[in-house]
Write a structure and sequence with these properties.
The chain is an alpha+beta fold. The protein has four helices and five strands; from the N terminus they run E-H-H-E-E-E-H-E-H.
Length: about 150
């Protein structure tokens, strides 16, 4: 079996990651047949522009990017005892359908959590699909009653 690698996305892989994002949205919502090339180009540019706050990890097998995950890092307000503080949010974890149910999503989550530890983040949150909740729970995520949200668009 070919070795699986979870690592930071390389510059040459940004378009592949953008293609995964297009594919994911198409699976969920359907998309028009045109516009993919422009989206991939613009998304890859967005990734380059936001690399300092949105760390992209990929899972690769035999040179093919099979999945992605982002760790969005947000600075927190300093306290007298901790001036430099930050937290993270797991975003856009996706594995291509033909590679699902083989543990790749879990490996991406593990990679994100290792990165969060390296960055010394205080905590990591995720807004998960119901299908992925068990994978997050197995890695220590739990419901936090104090974490509330409100939709801004009405």
């Amino acid at each position: 079996m070919t070795e699986i690698e979870v690592r930071a996305a390389r510059p040459a892989e940004l378009e592949a990651v953008a293609g995964l994002r297009w594919r994911w949205v198409a699976e969920q919502d359907g998309l028009p047949g045109d516009g993919r090339e422009a989206f991939v180009r613009e998304f890859a540019a967005w990734m380059r522009e936001n690399a300092a706050t949105h760390h992209c990890l990929v899972v690769v097998r035999a040179g093919r990017v099979l999945g992605m995950a982002f760790l969005a890092v947000t600075p927190r307000v300093p306290t007298p005892t901790a001036f430099s503080r930050a937290c993270g949010d797991v975003q856009s974890v996706y594995v291509v359908p033909e590679a699902r149910d083989s543990g790749l999503g879990g490996q991406l989550i593990d990679g994100v959590l290792r990165l969060a530890e390296e960055l010394e983040l205080e905590r990591v949150t995720v807004h998960s699909s119901s299908r992925a909740v068990p994978a997050y729970r197995r890695r220590g995520f739990s419901v936090a009653p104090q974490l509330l949200q409100v939709p801004v668009r009405r």
